[in-house]
Amino acid sequence: MHSLKRRAATATRPVPIPRQLVRVLCAHIEHFGVAPDGRLFRNQRGNYIDMSAYGLTWARAREYVLTRTELSSGLAKRPYDLRHAGISFWLYSGVEPAECARRAGRSIEVLFRYYAKFLDGVRDRANSLIEQSMEEWERGSHGVAPDG
């Protein structure tokens, strides 16, 4: 087990997880159990999984599930890229940036510099949200449309 970056070896950071992930993890544990030290993933002998095995398995999984365009784009090239995708998804889902940064253990500045790589369709969603707010504003007590 590795310590958190630039933190004491015993430091922890609680991160809530969605019910859907809890169900997946519980099903995994029910089917495969855990190692004596509590690890979820281990090789057939019960030992740590070699890093090269992760890479090979990840490469095969990408080829299986991604389109040629997605593969050539470098989407989720490494398992660590899921961190970027997850944090970007939180932002896309409307989680406040300060909360995303807290959960990620980063500053808001770092969050936007490195992790705010939004998912496809974000421009359309942003336009829709802006239009919805403008319509609400027009119907409200303001009486005058924003351009008039």
Describe it for me?
The longest helix has 18 residues, at 122-139. Helix 5 (97-104) crosses helix 6 (108-115). 55% of the residues lie in helices and 0% in strands. By secondary structure, it is mostly helical. Among the domains are: 81-117; 119-148. The chain contains seven helices and no strands.
In total, how many beta strands?
0
Major sheet attributes: none
Rg to the nearest angstrom? 21 Å
How helical, in percent, are the residues?
40-55%
Q: Please indicate the percent range of residues in DSSP E strands (runs of 2 or more).
A: under 5%
The general outline is extended
Q: What is the terminal-to-terminal distance?
A: 61 Å
Taking pLDDT < 50 over at least 5 consecutive residues as the criterion, the unreliable ranges are none
Q: Counting H and I runs of at least 4 residues, what is the number of helices?
A: 7
| Computed structural class | mainly alpha
Helix-strand pattern, N to C? HHHHHHH
Tell me, rounded to a whole number, the average pLDDT.
84
List the helices and strands and how they pair.
Blueprint: H1 19-32, H2 51-65, H3 68-73, H4 81-92, H5 97-104, H6 108-115, H7 122-139
Give descriptors for this structure.
55% helix, mainly alpha, single chain, 148 residues, 7 helices
